[in-house]
Amino acid sequence: MNIIQLCPETIAILFFTGLLAGFVDSIAGGGGLITLPVLLSVGLPPQAALGTNKLQGTFGTLSAAYNFIHKGEADLKKSSTGILFTFIGAAMGSFTIQLLDPGFIRHLVPVLLFIVLAYTMFSPRLGYENQEPKMAQNLFFIVFGLGLGFYDGFFGPGTGSFWTSGVCIFLGYNMIKAAGITRIMNFTSNIAALSFFIIGKNVSWTAGIWMAAGQVIGARIGSDMAIKKGAGFIRPIFMTVAALTIIRLFYKS
Fold first, then answer.
1. Which residues cross the membrane (predicted)?
2. Tens-digit pLDDT profile for residues 1-37
3. Does residue 2 belong to any structural domain of this protein?
4. Which residues lie closer than 8 Å to 152 by C-beta, 6 or more apart?
């Protein structure tokens, strides 16, 4: 188990980082872009930082998912197939990451995210209203659940963007409902991955809980704003997060 000593200043940084990340993540994903560098900066080794990131992220996605479900913008029962296959995929991915280096996938993800960003930019009405689905819901959840679940457990950056765009494009949902489904699936992959990081003793509970406290508050505020303001509010944040993720991954490649 990774234990680090935290001074009051570091605790404050972790809390407010979690709050900001929870806010952003509940709207458009990408919270890991904010939290992971901070966890590394407080002295956690990479595997422990990844595991601790899953711990704090689990609280944020649970808070946001509950809010979307409670306000009728996401349906847990209709998402059950996605939950099952996302859990399976994430468990496989988180087991694999503790054995392998994810370096090879870093070069592919920015390209895929760029395609998602370009498609969104050239589809100005995407996410504003429901459209005809291009894929059967169960098939979508099986394919995307296994694929994005594995990816989130194995590497992670951009998962929320892939889920949101996939739900809008292939299931035809508006961005509010897509954000709700994304949070449910993010929570599922987080809890699955977290289980394996705990087994591998790659979680710092102290750092994770302080950051999680901020996550819960930020996720509630962000999901409330997403539900109230709709696609006009979600879309620019979604595109900004996707662009920043591309830049970060290209910079690290």
1. 12-36, 48-69, 81-98, 104-123, 135-154, 160-179, 191-213, 233-251
2. 555 678 899 999 999 999 999 999 999 888 888 898 8
3. no
4. 86, 89, 90, 93, 159, 186, 189, 190, 193
* R_g (Cα) of the chain, nearest Å: 17
Torsion of CA 33, 235, 59, 46, to 10 degrees: -10
Please give the residue range of the domain that contains residue 145: 9-252
For the chain, give the number of residues.
253
Tally of structural domains, the chain: 1
Q: Does any domain span residue 62?
A: yes
Asked if residue 29 belongs to a domain, the reply is yes
Q: What does the alpha-carbon distance between residue 50 and residue 27 come to, in Å, rounded to a whole number?
A: 22
Written as six digits, the tokens of 95 are 């087991």
Query: CA-CA-CA-CA torsion for 166, 157, 211, 57, nearest 10 degrees?
Result: 40
Q: How far apart are alpha carbons 223 and 20 in whole angstroms? A: 13
Q: How far is CA 138 from CA 21, 81, 84, 143, 144, in A?
A: 31, 6, 11, 9, 10
Using CA atoms, how far apart are residues 103 and 168, in angstroms rounded to an integer? 29
**pLDDT confidence bin for 104, thresholds 50/70/90:** low
pLDDT digits (tens, 9 = 90+) for 136-174: 999 999 999 999 999 888 877 788 889 999 999 999 999
Looking at residue 39, its pLDDT comes to 92
